[in-house]
Amino acid sequence: MDDGAAARQGITRARTGGQLLADALVAQGVTHAFSVPGESFLDLLDGLYEVRDRVELVTCRFEAGAVHMAEAHGKLTGRPGVAIVTRGPGACHASIGVHVAMQDSTPLVLIVGQIPFAETDRDTFQEVDYRRMFAPLAKWVTQIDDAARIPELMARAFDVARSGRPGPVVVAISEEMQKSVVEVPDIGPAPTLPASPAPAAIPRLLSLLDGAERPVVVLGGTGWSAEGKAAIREFCVAHDLPVAVGFRRLGLYDGTLPNFAGDLGVGSDPGLVARVKESDLVIAIGSRLGEATSQGYTLFPAGETGPIVQVHPDAAEIGRVFRPLLGVTADLNLFALALRDAAPGKPRPWGEWTRTLRAGREASAAAPDYEGPLNFARALQALEAELPPDTIFTCDAGNFATWPQRFMTLREDQEFLGPTNGAMGYSVPAALGAAITHRGRCVLGFVGDGGFLMTGQEIATAFQSGVAPIIMVVNNGQYGTIRMYQERHYPGRVSGTQLTNPDFSKFIEAFGGHGEVVTATDELVPAFRRARESGKPAVIEVRMSPEQITNRQTVAQIRAAATKR
Fold first, then answer.
1. Whole-model pTM?
2. CATH class in words for 3-182
């Protein structure tokens, strides 16, 4: 009889709180946990030793990195990623990843070691009230002081993390509770069926679509399955609907298809933004239509009813800013399947509209003639042919990110992970989380020089875990996004944005990895080939001109425009 069957029949044994916590993770189907160890959860670590054949414990170097790895795991699997950190400073470091998970709608459970509960409110060593600290960052925060309640509260934590709009849950575990010995059964996941769209939802949407002349589908959110993505693709292709993806959701749609219109987010094609504003029906499936996707809430009048159908698993997200013509609360995958099955393709009057949006995407992705020996756009497009069809991309925050988003095309089986909250330091640990989750797949992480030195030390985890992601460090010697805004508002007054960097290729070589430096267009593909062939964790440092501050403007151009105002 397995542990789950024993739990269902009420058969149990005496266990410490630490063992119960580890067994609770097993009961919830957890396969990986990412952690920086701390004395506040020694008993949990001992419990994890007992289940090491079922839960892979990944030892990380920085708490923010551990949570980013867990968040990437959650994005890729649709199951809550698990991170375990210690109290006080550990929890504070981890809060960055909790914010990412909240804004990205990623299921996550963060377990935080806590002080002995008998010392509460004495301002004891590393004491923090986690309910107050994480309240605005997480979906739910709890603390376990009674070992007998571990199965109940841990099951609840996982239920909350994956329900409705998925997100992070924080569970504090007091120190002496982990030593208590109790006899209680484990609790597994609740057999909950996802929400189907209401019977009237699909007919009403199709009726609105029949009356449209310039429709656009906007895909976003998390929790998409391969079947769900295939269903929405089939529907959109059959009806010749132009499709855009939300901010950093490039993995949701095959960019090679003739109805793909591009991405809405930071650095979007201005032409696409203009076309969406002209649309007479926006079908937003999974997207919250947040600040970045809606271009600073300018796509539609805020607080007014717009030409929008919004589909989301959490009713509270529908109409939060923009009032839709129709709101549908449903699991995204069930909605996609129902929509596909209810509406076979038929001739539509907006073929020219779709071709216009597609032509705009192709024009935007055409590489300009940049000055200097490195045309990063052309180098990235040449790299596409070298990438396996199931490559996982991770991306940090910063101006550099707009280059792969604009000039590379993701295909059906490729994934793209990026922080919609703009957290620098995300890409390297996310790449590690992806590589550990899907061993054997090619993982390519894009990061700027600023972001790399925030969490680049996590590359050590790659060697310890036996994975080999490739990290592309785009180095222009500055905090590029802030420098761009600085030049727009205070042209020529450079303050606080310049960086002094190491030789990043030597950095990875110090760990025993593979390093490359790229300074010209035709050097990137050979460098990538050598990195792949090495079989080692690798860093490709791409040395960019600091003058080419964005893929659309140079510093001189931004400064000249600012001084004319």
1. 0.94
2. alpha beta
